[in-house]
Amino acid sequence: MERVLLIKYGEMTTKKGNRNFFVNTLYNNIKEKLKNFDVKIIKEISRMYIEFHDEDLERIKEQINHIFGIHTYHIAYIINSNMEEIISKSIEIMHKYEGKTFKVETKRSDKKFLIESMQVSRQVGGAILKNCIDMKVDVKHPEVLLNIEIRPYKSFIYTKTYYGLGGYPVGTQAKGMLMLSGGIDSPVAGFLTLKRGVRLDAVYFEAIPHTSLEARNKVIELTRILARYTDKINLHIVPFTEVQEEIYKTIDPAYCITIMRRMMYRITQLLAKKHNALILVNGESIGQVASQTLTSMSVINQVTNMPVIRPVACLDKLEIISIAQKIGSYETSILPYEDCCTLFVPKHPVINPTLEKCLKYEKNFDYKPMLEKAVEKTFTIKVEEQKEEKFKEFL
To answer: What is the pLDDT of residues 172-224, one digit of tens each?
Structure first.
């Protein structure tokens, strides 16, 4: 094949003794994403190459754009490592850019290639000036940067750089349990957690008939959007009606949200232990609502001994919305279907709850059997990007 897709790792290059593990995980993730294409993936410790058919390129790029662990990638011409071929292919490529300024950069990892990098760049640049119309060299701000990489046996030439998602390949860390509502923040928190290599399950609390099947469908769609960035996500749907109704029957309205969140944390921890997740993840942002003041988060956090990761804690709403728009979750998140967290919100929720009052109010009802029952009746959907038909039986 004349062209390959050249993958560069970025942050993964900081790894030392366990770098092979990261590279192998990325290789397996790419292989899974491209399983429906006729490709050949060649992995090396410093980069990866994908041989492809030209007619598949745009669809392959779309998949590559959803894989964590890739810093940049390039559509590179692959040629023999000799100056005649390097110059010939460089001229052929640069004919497409006639009339523009350019610069040639050469990296020579094959030290058996006797011509040094600077000299290769000079010879190629001189040949381009002679053979391409109205082209000029600009070493500071070129319109076209021609990259030449000379490696053992083969060389690669490319002009364009495409930026990947960065981060670590999903699966290089253990599993987390994402508290996924139908809002804007929690899908963004899930995306940012995946970016650190963490596999995710998700948990959604519903209170039928107070919440609707449309609200459930909305969360399934948000899970499907997140699944674009991994292979699949198990969505655990918790029947929360009994717990929520009991809270609003027996608890001071000002404390209802605080107690409800404490119950959700307890259930999420039970599910995390059941499904071998090591952390809880949510979309809490400091100060955004009453249950997300530092005092509230501290009091709510008391019910779990598992680490709680809050990836958007220090982002403002506009920053979170910007990420949601980029990852494709925003339009789904703003659909007008309420979830448990937006139902029955009191006019004046407490913003500085005390642990003593929470413990006092929780004695008003025997919640432990209710939580165990909710976990027992939780059902799970395996959500994959392309398999929406699986969801119909649950709607």
So the answer is: 999 999 999 999 999 999 999 999 999 999 999 999 998 889 999 999 999 99
Same domain, 198 and 292: yes
Q: Which domain holds residue 58?
A: 3-163
How many domains does the structure of the chain reveal?
2
Place of tokens 């292979």: 231
Beta partners for residue 146, in sequence order: 104
* Sequence-ordered strand ranges (E) for 144-295: 144-150, 154-158, 162-163, 175-179, 199-206, 233-239, 277-281
67 burial level (CB within 10 Å; 0-12, 13-18, 19+): buried
d(CA 366, CA 383): 34
Q: What is the pTM of this model?
A: 0.93
- Domain with residue 364: its CATH number is 3.40.50.620
Which of these three, 163, 197, 227, is where a domain ends?
A: 163
Asked whether residue 168 is assigned to any structural domain, the reply reads no
User: Are the C-beta atoms of 185 and 312 separated by less than 8 Å?
Assistant: yes
